[in-house]
# Entry
Amino acid sequence: MRAQTIDVKQAAGRILCCTIFRAGGKKLLAKGHVISDEDAKMLETEGMNQVWVTELEEGEIGEDDAVMQVASEIGCGSLEIRLAAGGRANLFSTEACCMLVDDELLKQINCAASLVIATALNFSHARSGQRVATVVKERGPILQARPIRSPSVAVLYSDPLAGERARQLFENIMRQRLDRLGTNAGFVLSALEEEGALARSLQHLLRARPTCVLIASTTAPAGPDDVVGRAMLKAGCSIERFLAPVEPGNLLLLGYKDEIPIVSAPGCFRSAKPNVVDLILPSMLARYRISGWEIASLGHGGLLG
# Structure
């Protein structure tokens, strides 16, 4: 681009190099604005004879075209791109989504002098129409709006004395947590917290092919070798991760049966306050297979309260 000062009468079709203000401080035209014939006449009326503009050189494209092109490359999924003032583009979710962000690539891009990209948090839930990123350039995609479509949640309540006791304690909190994400518990069972009973109940729920299974237990497991972990293994699940660098929720136990995630998070269903379940539930509802490594990466910002 080549900057130059020209007569206002010749400014139509040129790009402003800087914002123009009235003497009283009111903004007339923003930097990057393409001057129209009406704009040129207005500037003359305001007493301006010359204006500082940018002229594109051969092979260059305008700022708005450039940022729209880049925005289309850095995201995928259920996203809509809208041009914003000041050489920016905003990305909005077009339906309820889980946001998946390549954090390392985002850092690399933001280290480049000419690039700035801000996104929603990784694994966060986004409502339809919510702004999820602001972009100014580069390669990608670094952000995916993974849609949450008709999720079905299965809940297994368990207690060493009676499964119904756990249901009475946790069901209201469970309903509030799922309501926030626009879903509900489609399959619900209660079981005695004993390996065989838990495994049978879990197998019964898995036959319904839910999007995910949440085990709400009144006890805290000592690890995958405890009752809940053994029951998961007996039901044919593999253990992906025990322990999360998140508080509340460090005793998280995550397993999979084929592509269905099963989560036990002791203490996390006693309160509606944010905990590890809220961090990973959007990704599970979007049918994204969250890994043990990604759970381990939650430590930065994992102190929730």
